[in-house]
Design goal:
This protein is α/β, with parallel strands linked by helices. It contains 41 helices and 24 strands. A hairpin with a 4-residue loop joins strand 16 and strand 17. It is globular. The structure holds flavin-adenine dinucleotide and iron/sulfur cluster (2 copies).
Amino acid sequence: MAGVDASARRRAEYSTDASLYRVAPELVAFPRDADEVVAVVETCLGLGVPLTARGAGTSIAGNAVGTGVVMDLARHLGRVRSLDPEAATARVEPGVVLDDLQAAARPHGLRFGPDPSTHSRCTLGGMIGNNACGSRALAYGRTADNVLELDVVAGTGQRLVARPGAVGEVPGLDAVVRAALGPIRTQFGRFGRQGSGYSLEHLLPERGGDLAQALAGSEGTLAVVLGATLRLVKAPAATVLVVLGYPDMAAAADAAGAVLPHHPVALEGIDARIIDVVRRRGRAVPDLPKGGGWLLVELPGATPAEAEAAAVRLTAAAGPDALAARVLHDPSQAAAVWRIREDGAGFGGRSPAGAPAWAGWEDAAVPPERLGAYLRDFEALLADHGLGGIPYGHFGDGCLHVRIDFPFDRPGGQAVYRSFVEQAAALVAGHGGSMSGEHGDGRARSELLPLMYSPDAIGAMAAVKAALDPRDLLNPGVLVRPRPFDADLRRTMVRPVTGRLGFRYAEDGGDLTSAVHRCTGIGRCVADNSAAGGVMCPSWLATRDEKDTTRGRSRVLQEAVNGTLVRGLSSPEVRESLDLCLACKGCASDCPTGVDMATYKAEVLHQTYRRRLRPPAHYSLGWVPRWAALAARAPRLANLLLATPVLSQVAKRLAGVDRRRPLPRFAPQTLRTWWRRRPAAGPTRPRVLLWPDTFTDHFSPSAGQAAVQVLEDAGYRVELPDEPLCCALTWISTGQLDTAKRVLRHAVDRLATLVGEGPGSKGGSAEVRGASVLVGLEPSCLAVLRHDAPALLGADDPAAVVVARAARTLAEVLGATPGWAPPDLSGVVAVAQPHCHQHAVLGWEADRDLLARAGAEVTAVGGCCGLAGNFGAERGHYDVSVAVAETALLPAVRAAGPDAVVLADGFSCRTQLDHLAGRRALHLAELLAGGRR
Ligand SMILES: Cc1cc2nc3c(=O)[nH]c(=O)nc-3n(C[C@H](O)[C@H](O)[C@H](O)COP(=O)(O)OP(=O)(O)OC[C@H]3O[C@@H](n4cnc5c(N)ncnc54)[C@H](O)[C@@H]3O)c2cc1C
Ligand code: SF4
Ligand code: SF4
């Protein structure tokens, strides 16, 4: 029988999808094959328990949540069974992720046509459930148009193959269709993006009674898909992206019709305000033409030259309407624009006024020629309700996406939501449109179907449901006999948590509840983002368990702050949920809504262990700066003692460190001691403050010495503080936030004085972009100064602000030094592991540019090294730490061969590489100073 889990933590993890709704299941089932799926269905039928099928759970309308049993089909049913390149078909299990199918089809020049923005994690079963579309459905059709056969089990328990002509195989279904021919012929299938309601037009006799196509879009309310045979399409040999700029989104929508004759593969609209959000998040954005709204037009060609020629024709033709046009010839720039478009729901997660913006009215569609008019009416309706949202969407298909700042946290907010949605639905119906253009109706729209369909049509849908699921057990409350769309709203169940918090949560109004509710469930964390240089979420990549996703953790924390399924932040469920979080901060930059689980984990540990006995690792690894200072008095002796097998094992046991981890060796001489013994450089040179963090000072002074050499060669007078100044990183990551604030306070005050008093602050030549400079070598410590210090001490704390502004990586300082030229590194082949905190907070672009200028051939690895400070050293984390290292870093190092330079600025990354790969990795400073090994 399928694995099942009825724990409160598991129920919390599956209590919502990417929608507004929270519906906790009684139990989650993880079937391993089709027979187990059937067994789950039969058991639910026997017991009369509701059952909701679930793929990746990225549905936005509450389509994938339910009481009773939620059945996760993504966990074990992810195999592409076969692929026939000649026939251009594929047979898949329901849990196959779309990108995996595309990877299997690509070598044959084939692809699956529709591609929702969630392609990196959405499953074929879920796509069939929602009749998913996406940008390229414009050229290749919706999922329904690409489904040939479905192996299903219906809500009656009947197992059958749904295909053209199979209507007669479901008792009573043929009669239902014949009784409703009129309404089906006139009201269903009127235009491409009529996503609301069942697609009954496919059941018509003149259309071949195609039960497979009709089941697409039924949102798991009629049958559960066990396997599917799909049509693949020929992928264009070349594509090019043209961006056309217009004064605003409505003008862009008006212009979409004129672009269609150019036969684009995709024709999307995107608002300039989304790009502003991306820039504010510090992400690089390719140059885009002038405009307040853009059309993104992907044009195909049999050759790159043909695609380019099509682009030239389009830009010439678009002239009169468009303000400006730009062809993105560089595929990496085009990919960057597509990534922004795909993350639109996340970046649109704040309204223009900065309020949280929500799903709920997310994907209405109108016939494409009505889109401009609809958009203007829609903007007016928003204004009437005092609401805001940033639109974007599939303009070539008339489908408009928007997240809206419904005031759920205010009294009467729910009523505003109801009033707006009812009027928006009437507006869409008035434009001949559909409440849903691709996400399905779920709980958000099913109640509104009578505004779009006659009672006869609604009756026909109910009769189809009665034929396939007479007991209403499959995904009840959706499509037929709907729940009110304002029932079960997740956000209205919350209560603020503001008192006695460790961090300030300035961007969330000082409220931890708002912070953990940032997660809207869009599921970027349930995908492998490492190929694109992303980090989030390494623990999921290692375990593939929902528990270890950023999303799963957010859900458990949401339940904990709400005090619902999980009782408080100190509960065992929260502990389990956060246990494998590496605190890598990958989510802080990679999650489009800015979930920062490392911060929440530190907060939870702070709240849980405040004035209580802590786990041993908090005293050992959390207090590393103190132990290192002690060891510095006799480092050789300390190393000797810790290298003794018996003592080492005892020390590890007491310290809560995994016995397989070697203990790091203290440097025989700290960086600061070395520094004190060397002559000072000339006083006339511009000054930089080199900050010896604990790790550089006590464990890697060679990186510091190399940095001194490189900075002096660059013409600087290097200074070091005359006392140890610790950023409190290890106290932060172990949630000892009271101590952390004390330690950090001292360091920040002192560093602020040091960067403030030199010539740099008075306009001297040491200025880099107008501020005095502090160079940090350990990325995680420097990230504390830039990010955590303001978050702990206050974004308005004068010293924290001065230090955060002054803090620079070595590459940033060198890259901005006038006249500095990097050493010649041509011929150097390097694998670089940007530290996760560098990825999340500091950025690695300056390093990339510098290495490119030096002529080195560098492969930057995405993902995390797996050690992540104290995480990988702690008892119980070893296997996951190794598994994380194996996801990207270790394979890349092995593939590069023994002669490649391995570059890693993070002490954790170097330690992990040394231990698991036997490779000594260099800090950038060491490479620039001439080191190669
Ligand atoms: C940021 C974001 C962007 C999106 N962009 C798009 C887009 O561009 N185009 C688009 O069409 N959609 C989009 N979506 C919606 C959603 O991602 C897609 O509909 C996706 O195909 C759902 O796949 P899933 O695996 O997550 O399915 P789930 O959400 O898990 O399930 C979807 C529905 O299918 C049912 N279901 C799942 N598996 C089965 C099965 N085996 N048998 C029967 N029923 C099943 C579920 O009960 C549910 O009703 C987006 C969502 C987000 C969050
Ligand atoms: S954590 Fe971020 S990426 Fe993951 S589901 Fe939540 S919002 Fe999406
Ligand atoms: S901090 Fe890292 S491991 Fe933890 S949830 Fe975020 S991405 Fe995942």
